[in-house]
Amino acid sequence: MARILAVTGGYVVPVSSDPIPDGTVVVTDGVITAVGGADTAVPDGAEVIDATGSWVVPGFVESHGHLGVHEDGEGWSGNDTNEMTDPNGARFRALDGIDIEEVGFRDALRGGVTTAVIKPGSGNPIGGRTVAIKTWGGRTVDEQVLATDVSVKSALGENPKRVYGDRKQTPSTRLGVASVLRDAFVAAQNYADKRTSAADKDEPFERDLGKETLAAVLAGDLLWDQHCHRHDDIATAIRLSEEFGYRLIVNHGTEAHKIADVLAEKQIPVIFGPLLTSRSKVELRDRAIGNLALIAEAGVKVAITTDHPVVPIDQIRLQAILAVRDGLPAETALEALTTNPADILRLNERVGALEPGRDGDVVVWSGDPLAVDSRVQRVFIEGRAVYEPGTDAAPRVVERWERFGRTSWMG
């Protein structure tokens, strides 16, 4: 029997299309099957949620965070963000370090975040593979995976030169960091050629997981998430991407406004943020929330990140609110939390908007999410309630074991 959810009577904001007053969203077996007005048919047997007086929006997408690999408040024991023993960490995977019991996952639900792209840190020139996951609902992280083949995290600028410079080894300069990337991509090109030749000749071939990852970047199967703040580092990122032909995404982009026209011409998106931070290092000296509006105004597709736990993940919409205060159009701000990150990271067949065919990740807000006094009232991931009103009228997280019909984690 089909599992059907119908959220009715709310102000439905699909984001990918015009808002619908007194709207209805129907989710069948985890997938949205209808979005429309009050006359939208509600199937027999559906669980009906009355959202009258509330806003109904797609779950937010955190496009750059360390949720579960850098556990908030756990110190060194919970920090598996950076494997800083090799400048080329292409073989490392964020998926292998995620603890879904980190408190940040509960914070994500309170902030309306239903999808997060988890990335290794920025201590290495090449940090490793990223992974997109849902923020609740699985017994293991594997049951929350949305996409394993998303991107590879890389870093330019101060972080890798400081980490390895302190050890008196390459890379200790920006020149050295760029050379590590070039060497790695040339090796990956050679590897791919040899692999093809071996396959053509039906000969045995010894696999190398790091080179396979970079070969997938060169083939376009994986995106390239480039940590960079200063405009000169962004220019280097562009130079390298054009030299080797991979799909570049600028992450952080503190000074992206200085060359926003270049980024727009080349259709390079920017995952901007975190916005609520101090100028903790030299390359952040021109950090300003208003820079995001300048980047978007130039025609660059933008997303907003908390870089959790740098900024707690539930504050992602507060960052959007502050960006609106400093000139970002409200419509763009909401897109930067939903459709844009989904588009940028090629997750838009599943998440980022309320439309038929996408996952039933639906969040009910007390009002406009970009109003400071609005609160999350309910969260559904793939049509299942994961955050709902409690007996004392305070929303509660629906525990993982409840999803599987158990009364406690012990079964």
Notes on the structure:
The chain is built from 11 helices and 19 strands. The protein has 411 residues and is α/β, with parallel strands linked by helices. It folds into 2 domains: 102 residues, Urease, subunit C, domain 1, CATH 2.30.40; 285 residues, TIM Barrel (Alpha-Beta Barrel). The strands form 3 sheets. Strands 1, 2, 3, 4, 5, 16, 17, 18 and 19 form a 9-stranded mixed sheet that branches. Strands 8-11-12-13-14-15 form a 6-stranded mixed sheet. A 4-stranded mixed sheet has the order 6-7-9-10. Strand 13, helix 6 and strand 14 form a beta-alpha-beta unit. The longest helix is centred in the middle third of the chain and has 27 residues. The radius of gyration is 22 Å and the shape is globular. The model has no long low-confidence stretch (mean pLDDT 95). This is Amidohydrolase.
